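Second attempt. The first submission of Methyltransferase FkbM had a stray character pasted in from the spreadsheet, which I only caught after the job came back as garbage. Lesson logged: always re-copy from the clean sequence file. Corrected sequence (249 aa) follows.
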Amino acid sequence: MCLHPRGDYVADFVYAAGGKDQKVTADSSDSIYESKLRKEMLRILAENGDPDAVVLDIGGNIGLHTVFLANAGYKVHVFEPFKGNFDLLKCTVMSNPQLAKNVVLNNFGLSDVAAKTCIVSNPTNHGGSVIQGSGTENCTAENTVEVRRLDDYLLEHQIKPYLVKIDVEGYEYKALSPASTFFKENPPSHIFSEFVSKHFKEQGEAEAYLELFYQLGYNVKWNENVVKKGSEKYSALMKAEFADIHMYQ
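This time the job returned cleanly.
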């Protein structure tokens, strides 16, 4: 894999598991960052039995999830707006014919508008880059990124994703909500999302994000428990410092 230098949070996991020459296999996934999530996605995709299933990786970073999913044969549309991450992701994908065949690379983020905006990167965790909202005033050229609407993308590419993974540092609602009408007719069977309460509180969209899924008829699962709106689990999730949630129908 093509990696950031040592000192980057995610890259260091890969170095520890075998360095930049880490081979892409199902077994090697066990020892790398977020392996539990990745194994669950691969299990669900295998049980679904469709070798042509389409996956969206929204917030691709350097491509850990994309690489393993595409290597298993699935078509992955990956979105990564930050050039420093995207260049490494592209480097990895284009150096492997199997990945190049199965990955659609998108050097832009997703939002509720199509625009240019500013992203702030974290030098010790480039995957934690945060989109700062609309506009590019006082933004450097390096940190100016493009965002587009997901519904436009899905219609343009004529795809119906089976599984979605999203991790965009509190920007999840803005990224997914434009596709709500599309998802009513073509709901992904599984959506895996990071849920960091402080990020959502900054955007004021924690409740709206969960409501998006409830309105679409999804079950929301956290820590192996279904989270009903207004329940104790719901209140606990709203207060959780960090959570991985799974929406399914």
